[in-house]
Amino acid sequence: MERLMQIARKVSDKVEIYSLDETSNSVSFENAKLKDIDSKFQSGFSLRIIKDGKVGFAFTKNLIDREEFVENALSSLKGGVEAEFDLPLTGNLPKLDTYDPSIGSLENNTIVDECNRICDILAPRTEGQINLYAGCGINRLRLMNSNGTDLSTDYSYYYTYTAIMYPGSYASISREGIYKKFKKTPDACLKYVLDTYNGSAKEVSPRGGKMKVLFLPETIYVLMWRLWHATSGKSIYQKESPISGKLGKQIFDSKLTIYNDPLNDRWPGARSFDDEGTPCQYFPIVENGVLKNFYYDLHYANKLNTKPTGHGFKSSGWGGDTITLKPNPHLNHLFIKPGDKSLSEIIRSLDRGIIVAGALGAHSGNIPNGDFSIGLCPGLYVENGEIVGYVKDAMVAGNIYEVMKNVVAIEDTLYPASMGTYPAVLFDDVSVATK
Q1: Cβ atoms within 10 Å of 427's Cβ, excluding its own
Q2: Which residues are in the Metalloprotease TldD/E N-terminal domain (predicted)?
Q3: What is the pLDDT of residues 254-305, one digit of tens each?
Q4: pTM here?
Q5: Which of 16, 30, 315, 403 could share a disulfide with 35, CB 3.0–4.6 Å?
Q6: What is the SS3 assignment for 104?
Q7: In the CATH scheme, what is the homologous superfamily, with its name and number, of domain 2-197?
Q8: What confidence tens digit (pLDDT) does each residue in 211-233 have?
Q9: Quick one: 70 exposed, middle or buried, by C-beta within 10 A (0-12, 13-18, 19+)?
């Protein structure tokens, strides 16, 4: 990387080099039987250069020809993309506990044995199909720029995903666990999946209407996706956010506090710097229902004449190879502050309502405006404090700036899920349509 930096600096004003090595092992079980084992190693480099106020970008899987790599970045300058921001000089960052060396010696046989153990526990106790996914990996990242920044981090992870499928559908009751080292799936996780599935195995057809709706951690991303979009510096700059003028104002129920915390190294993937070298920080988005902040990368902070907030990440809502992506504003470490009631207490408090256990069409609706309209996959129907069955062909719809003003209760425990780490949240007066 040092030689690449020397070559690139000779022909440009500013240089940023990003490298990533990823090692991963994964195991999948279908219908309680081993289906696949996969091991991967991949590495790559991306290069951003700034010259005459324009930005160029290129990526490669190797550094065999550094001169050609730089030429590719120079050629992309013809696109005329403006880059008026400077690259940060960053050092003296907090040391985070992100890597457990035991992951390096974790064998696939151990993961398979753990999956078999889970199947042996669940299979005799349910008629549903048991699907499992588990795996581990190590990511090694290094970031250099021409201003003198040279940062690196390693992080390890081990994950499990346990699901029991409803017959004749893709719907399931599932739960994910993610750790920095190998850990047996807790009994509480298996009990939750088993009891929730068995208690809802009967298909029911309740009437629709406005009612209480409980979003499980696995489906909260439907709501957070809209907030993630509305508070991005990109959306503010492009005038797409319906809350651009509402900093300091109440937008949600006072029970809701939503924050980004990359420094929380209890969870895998904690970061002290973003993919542009800006320091990360604890960052409140909504505090007791009040909108506190928008978030920015280098580019959009410059466009809006404000400071970058450490949210410039090579991420995409649709996935993709990290090396091929350019930094954009992203909330990669989003949390909802837990409440004071267990999930079972919240369910027992329901006279009538729906639990959103899975979502279809999370992209449906006007995301910039906060609208959503999702199919339930599955939805669980609750009556008199008990789950009585699962609902097919049903939908939940609304707008987050209305729905999230009516919080009834928030679960007391956080779980890793899509787009963040969340508790279950119960809302009132939500529209449910049933067949």
Answers
A1: 25
A2: 15-75
A3: 999 999 999 999 999 999 999 999 999 999 999 999 999 999 999 999 999 9
A4: 0.95
A5: 30
A6: helix
A7: PmbA/TldD superfamily (3.30.2290.10)
A8: 999 999 999 999 999 999 999 99
A9: buried
